Amino acid sequence: MKSANLYKGSLTTIILKLLNEHDKMYGYEITQRVKEITKGELQITEGALYPSLHKLEAEGLLDVEFVRVNNRLRKYYKLTELGTKETVNKLAELEDYIRTMRALVNPKFRFEE
After folding, report:
1. Cβ distance 67 to 74 under 8 Å?
2. Looking at the DSSP assignment, which residues form a beta bridge with residue 68?
3. pTM
4. Cα separation values, 34 from 17, 55, 98, 111, Å
5. Which whole-number Å values give the CA distances from 61 to 12, 78, 83, in the listed order?
6. 69 and 5 in contact (C-beta within 8 Å)?
7. Angle, alpha carbons 18-34-69 (nearest 5°)
8. Ramachandran sector of residue 25 (left: φ over 0; alpha: ψ -120 to 50; beta: rest)
9. Which pLDDT tens digit goes with each residue over 61-102?
10. CA-CA 20 to 30 A from 41: which of 15, 20, 34, 48?
11. How far from chain centre, in Å, is Cα 82?
């Protein structure tokens, strides 16, 4: 993807939003869901995803649950109550950012506060 750096700063918001829509997800499932939603335009690597998941867990925004699937332990992530609140904040921040950028790149767009 040409604009991968633009998405880098939004990874936390993407993760929180997906987990808000689903009860729980495991890492590979998150990467595949993003790929599916964006029709392959955005592909999150494990090298980007797992450090973000671990950071969110350390911040108390995610809980972890281990489930045995086909004789293997699978690590599922789900939002904590604090994580749900932070999702609302992050989405509002992203919407504000998008509105501001739209105003900058399209002078015909009216910036409203």
Report:
1. yes
2. 73
3. 0.85
4. 11, 19, 19, 30
5. 11, 8, 4
6. no
7. 75
8. beta
9. 999 999 999 999 999 999 999 999 999 999 999 999 888 888
10. 20
11. 15
